[in-house]
TrEMBL record:
Annotated GO CC locations: plasma membrane
Pfam families membership: TauE
Residues spanning the membrane: 12-30, 50-74, 86-102, 108-130, 137-156, 176-209, 216-235, 247-268, 275-290, 296-318
Its membrane topology: Multi-pass membrane protein
UniProt KW keywords: Cell membrane, Membrane, Transmembrane, Transmembrane helix
Keyword Cell membrane found: yes
Region (Disordered): 346-365
Name of the protein this chain belongs to: Probable membrane transporter protein
Subcellular location: Cell membrane; Membrane
InterPro entries per UniProt: TM_pro_TauE-like
Keyword hit for Protein biosynthesis: no
UniProt record similarity statement: Belongs to the 4-toluene sulfonate uptake permease (TSUP) (TC 2.A.102) family.
Length: 365
């Protein structure tokens, strides 16, 4: 796994991006007379003040806040929440990504490259073939279930997840292939339906399978969400079109997230990721309860039980991924011990036995 941590940051690139973005936004707002429309959607700008912090400091895009605000609080269609997620993250997550790259933060490059390739292939298929088949209610439930499982996972595994350093060093070709599969599946089945989620799936693979440090996993997840959002809003704009109301909300929120997401990535280093992740995990569980309450007439007890079962299945998948990661790490340690033993044997004088390698025991999750 390639982890690049060059010494000298190039923050001037990020400031150049900010200047270009705000110049364009000012032209839209004042040059094109769209300032009243931006003001009319001020509640979304206020909401995304918090959402942009979440986007930059956790493996969850700003749409994670924007989607429930629009769909559950403002009672807008789920398709609007999905398209707005793509639109607002194309600015916020892109800004955070440029900030991360300019600061030269360590990234899981091999898996990220694979995920970028997989998402590029999977997202168009998901937008054209999968998303049109998913009813409004199911879009809400897919979002609620995935994020609830993410929240529950962090509530009972936060000590383990937040306590890791570095990551398991596998073969980079293997990392790349895993990234391709994750990127394709998550883009086609999750991001295309909800507008978010591929970042969380890649993050889960990094922390559970590769046992990565949060300082590696979260920035990597930000970059994959940025690319998926830019690609998603571009595809929607030139093909199916975006839902009515997206542009006004985007116009109000974009100047907030362009600065808020990178600042979230910076501030979280001062207060720590653990309290932020615990707080966000509680929000994830809370939005699941909120969704079930809001859609109770359509769900009933049967739908609620199915939703809870879906959360359980997601958690089971996370735990299987974690167990697989433990076995792979144990195998890697054993292989390293055998190589070291062979080297020691080669260096030992004739007639002197090299020390036996330690017994490798598979670590039980």
């Amino acid at each position: 796994m390639t982890l690049l941590t060059p010494r000298k940051p190039f923050l001037w690139i990020w400031f150049l991006w900010l200047g270009a973005f705000y110049a364009t936004w000012c032209w839209l707002a004042f040059g094109r007379g769209l300032w009243p429309e931006a003001v009319a959607h001020w509640p979304m700008a206020l909401s995304m003040t918090f959402g942009s912090y979440i986007a930059g400091s956790t493996p969850m895009g700003g749409g994670t806040v924007g989607f429930p605000i629009l769909v559950l609080l403002f009672d807008m269609p789920a398709t609007l929440g999905r398209d707005f997620s793509f639109a607002v993250q194309s600015i916020g997550m892109t800004s955070a990504s440029i900030f991360i790259l300019a600061r030269r933060q360590p990234l899981a490059w091999a898996m990220l490259k694979g995920a970028l390739l997989g998402a590029t292939a999977g997202l168009p298929l998901g937008i054209f073939l999968v998303a049109p088949l998913v009813p409004e209610l199911w879009i809400k439930l897919v979002f609620a279930v995935i994020w609830a499982s993410f929240g529950v996972l962090h509530l009972y595994r936060i000590g383990e997840i937040a306590g890791r350093a570095g990551m398991t060093d596998f073969d980079e070709r293997w990392d790349f292939r895993v990234g391709v599969v994750i990127g394709f599946a998550a883009a086609a089945l999750v991001a295309a339906v909800t507008g978010v989620g591929i970042d969380m799936v890649l993050y889960a693979a990094l922390v559970l399978l590769c046992r990565a440090d949060l300082r590696i996993a979260i920035p990597t997840s930000v970059l994959i969400m940025a690319w998926t959002s830019v690609l998603g809003i571009a595809i929607k704009s030139v093909s199916t079109g975006v839902a009515p109301g997206v542009f006004g909300n985007w116009l109000a929120a974009a100047p907030v997230v362009a600065l808020g997401a990178p600042l979230g990535a910076l501030v979280v280093n001062l207060i720590g990721r653990r309290p932020t992740l615990v707080f966000v995990a509680l929000l994830c569980v809370g939005q699941f309860a909120w969704t079930c309450r809001t859609e109770w007439a359509a769900l009933g007890w049967g739908g609620l039980l199915l939703a809870l079962a879906a959360v359980g299945l997601c958690l089971l998948g996370f735990e299987r991924l974690r167990r697989w990661g433990a076995l792979l790490a144990a195998g890697r340690d054993a292989a390293g011990a055998r190589v070291e033993h062979r080297h020691a044997a080669a260096r030992a004088p004739d007639g002197v036995a090299a020390p036996a390698p330690p017994l490798a025991r598979g670590r039980r999750a």
